[in-house]
Amino acid sequence: MRNKTLLNLLAAAAAFAAAAQDDFSVQALQGDYDRIIPSICQVLFTQEVTDPRTGETVRRNGNCLGLIVRADGLVMAQGHLSVENATPVDLRVRVGRGGAEKEYPAVALHKPGDINVMFVQAQSDTPLNLPHVTFTPQPLRLGEPVAILGLTGETLDFEPGVFTDRIAAIITQPRTTYCLANNLRFGCITGPVVNARGALVGVAGIDLSRAEGGELYTRSGHPLVYQAELFQKYIDKPPEREDAHKAEDNAWLGVFTQPLKDDYAEYWGIEKTGGLIVSTVVPDSPAAKAGVQAGDVIKSFDGKPQTFTQDRDVLAFTKLVRDTGTGKTVSMGLLRDGKPLTVQITLATLPRSAQEADEFEDTVLGLSVREITRDVRIALNIAEDVRGVIVRKVKSGGVAQIGKMRPGVIILALGDYPVASIADFQQAMKKLREAKPAELAVFARVGPQTGFFRLKPKW
Amino acid sequence: MHLTDGVSLRRFWAASAVCASLLLTAGCATMGGGQDGPVIRAKDRVAPALVHIRPVKEVFSGGKKTEMLAVGSGFIISADGYVVTNEHVAGESSSVQCVLSDHREVAAKVVGVDPDTDIAVLKLDTTDKLPWVKMGRSADLQAGQTVLALGSPHGLARSVSKGIVSVTNRYLGGDGLMESPYNDWIQTDAAINPGNSGGPLVNIKGEVVGVNARILNGAENVGFAIPVDTVRGVVEAIIRDGRVHRSWIGVTFQEMLAKTDDPSQHGVVISDVERLSPAAEAGVKPGDVLVAINGREMNARFEEDLPAVRKAVADLPVGSTAVFAVHRGEEKVDIPVKTEEKTAQKGSQAEFGEWGFTATEVTPEIARRAQLPERTGILVSGASPGGIAARAGLQEGDIVLMVDGQKATDLDAFKALYKERKESQKKLIMLFVQRGALTRFVLINATAEAPQPEEENAGHAE
Q1: Angstrom distance (rounded) from CA B88 to CA B56
Q2: Over its length of 459 residues, how does chain A's per-residue pLDDT go in tens digits?
Q3: Chain B contact present for A264, CB below 8 A
Q4: B271, A9: Cβ pair inside 8 Å?
């Protein structure tokens, strides 16, 4: 429905835009350009991208626009720098132009959950005093012209430019969102947005954060303006460094949920006031220990009423849980068979994800193995009682590949040594290296089936 | 000008080539058959019993049941009109029409099918005495020996092709879902194409030695036939009981080579033991090496030795206790295991038209793949786009476990629950489904109107 509204408004705005073209004078644009361009820099990075199915990781180089938002080198850049399966490594910030470029090493700060931008901190031995922008939050009006400053050129050479656009639609749910009329150049993502009165009101972006149902917008491919109110708090108080932000910070309840839509409420004969239906309880999770059952409806969490009715809300609930705090005991209000019930739950730490998993590469067998993390167990539907390590890579032409092993195989035992963890695997390999058997029977699971692989290691 | 000449020239040559070959054939015939004589005689022994089969198959796709005309081959094995073909030709069909070698069209009824070996038996609806084939012995086959494939490649009835046996015992392990666990295959280079399925592979004596059933996609002259020694027992069982009864203990076997290259070590590796299976309850463990069943030695050094071992287990009387002698490390253990009847490998399907989806029975294999704790529920094989089920969020691959809090234990149970709700015109029905590792609630709104196409274009902003 929202998309349809968006399209209709777009049509209206396009007609309007054709009628009135020039609200920015050339002088005004030149003024904005001169004032803001020194604060635009280039963020260079190497990105590590993991294929979620095979676990294969490739590295690729890239660069994007950065906007210096604090004199000490805090830079705002696009959120796609760090997504689910891609993390930036070896970040650098290149400031200045025309032969006066200066490059600083930089670190990624923890990505905000509520807006699809990243913050990067330039590093220097001496305190930095870089040119930077200051935002002036002002609401935008439908049809209002805006200027976007960014980098031009296919190769994203540091050639700044100024582009004009209009606000084509204003969406009020899930929060006020200003949609732009035209396609956004790659070099303009996170580019500063100025209104006709010369106020720096926000930055350009291409989708909402995931917690806001961002994927829906990505499908529409529509550019927007992130208004300054959304991110000013991160400029005032920058997020922690990414590497300082450990999984321990994320709390875990251990349920999968669906929103309580009105027809579901009608079916169960309960009030149509929203909530979250527990669809799956993860075994051994805090929720399981507290006796939460599939079919329970969560009406409140830690004193906060839960009134969700939309699919995307489920992500907001996940975020609420994560931010509540590990080890904290909260009360959760449930409806079970229509009757209210309160359970006390001590939140645990979010189990490690596949990206944080322990890994070990064995050069004799020519493979790397990884612990089976909770997310992988769910994604691949691996039963709870399966204890082993998962093959992540096999070396081309190596012992494992010759023995027909491939990524995704779960190793359960090496010879007579059961393998339930990376430590077991290492221990077993240590003993095998001493014994040097000519053949090694690896007991493993492939899909639903167990079986043996015979390897001939070259010790 | 030149072009025209060229074309006529090529035509001329093509025509003379045909003339030449006709002359040659005629000449040979007068000389008593010559080199081709045995081939022609072999063909003549089988061709009268060859059957062109046109089944109307029930196909479940896109959440709907549709009917589709297929084509295959078969052969008559008795004067009273029993016909052997492939399960994949005649199975799941609503009617089967046969065309005999004298062009007569005769309807047939499916006597029974065996998906495990891909064999089906039909009975022709006629009282006439019919020509039938002689079955040979596939055990006597040798690689290199001449064979003929008869049938209807691409629907072209009465076709014969010639080749040799390439390999007598090719092992074809299915990708997880074992396609043919109880037999190795005869590999031949005699041309086999779609439509040849179910047709006979014949030796030079005019005896049927195999049933053509598979080709290797993308390869040339790589066809596979089910050995007639496998076919014989299956056909007898189908004619006698309507199906093949097999024993099951819940183990998967692997060749010894998977564990060791040492030829002095005999036996078969037990690679997997299903939970709650007779073998698991008797204490059989993965890694055990089976050396004998009821004193009969078992040995499978290579994968092509595996079908015989599986068949030895399947042939045990259902419900009997057999002693499995296994090596476990240095120990030798005798384990008595009580067999159970093996359930069908292929589940039946059904269409639930009002809700717009199709579902199949959860077979033990599907239950295992889905990591279900027990065999229960129905597997959604398709949800028709825009249908009630699809709009409620039901997806292909979902396993429906419950309907309004009641267990849907199998397809029949679900059909009954569905029928009750349809008859009572219940508006909202809650399904509890498994999707991958997770479970979900799916609310069916049986009264929901299908969306009108106009609505999409109405363009009213809200």
Answers
A1: 12
A2: 344 444 444 444 444 444 444 478 888 889 888 999 999 998 988 887 766 555 567 788 888 899 999 999 999 998 877 766 677 778 899 988 777 888 899 988 888 877 888 899 999 888 899 999 999 989 899 999 999 999 876 555 668 889 889 999 888 876 788 989 888 888 888 999 999 888 999 999 877 665 565 544 444 557 889 999 989 999 999 988 866 545 457 899 999 999 999 999 999 999 999 999 999 999 999 999 999 999 999 999 999 999 988 887 787 888 889 888 889 999 999 999 999 999 999 999 988 887 778 889 999 999 999 999 988 898 888 988 899 999 998 999 999 999 999 999 999 999 999 999 999 999 999 999 999 999 999 999 998 889 999 999 998
A3: yes
A4: no
Give catalytic residue positions of B.
Answer: 88, 118, 197
For B45-175, strand residue ranges (E) read 50-61, 64-69, 72-76, 82-85, 93-99, 105-114, 119-124, 134-135, 146-151, 159-170
Same structural domain for residues B285 and B264? yes
Q: Are residues B94 and B154 in the same domain?
A: no
Is residue B110 in some structural domain?
yes
Same domain (yes/no): B147, B237:
yes
**Domains in chain A: ranges and CATH:** 1-244 (2.40.10.120), 247-349 (2.30.42.10), 354-455 (2.30.42.10)
Q: Do A263 and B437 touch (CB under 8 A)?
A: no
Question: Comparing C-alpha atoms, which of B39, B47, B56, B118 is closest to residue B76?
Answer: B47
For residue B198, being part of any structural domain is answered with yes
Amino acid at the residue B125: D
Cβ within 8 Å of A, B 97-156 = none
Residues 6 or more apart whose CB falls under 8 angstroms from that of A346 comprise A286, A327, A328, A329
Is the CB of A384 inside 8 Å of chain B's CB atoms? no
With CA atoms as reference, the chain B residue closest to A444 would be: B271
Please report which helix (H) or strand (E) contains residue B456, including its range: helix B453-458
Domain count for chain B: 4
Contact B342, B364 (CB under 8 A): no
Q: Is the Cβ–Cβ distance between A106 and A61 less than 8 Å? A: no
Residue B101 lies in a domain: yes
Q: Would the CB atoms of A450 and B461 count as touching at under 8 Å?
A: no
Q: State residue A108 phi and psi, 5-degree precision.
A: -80, 140
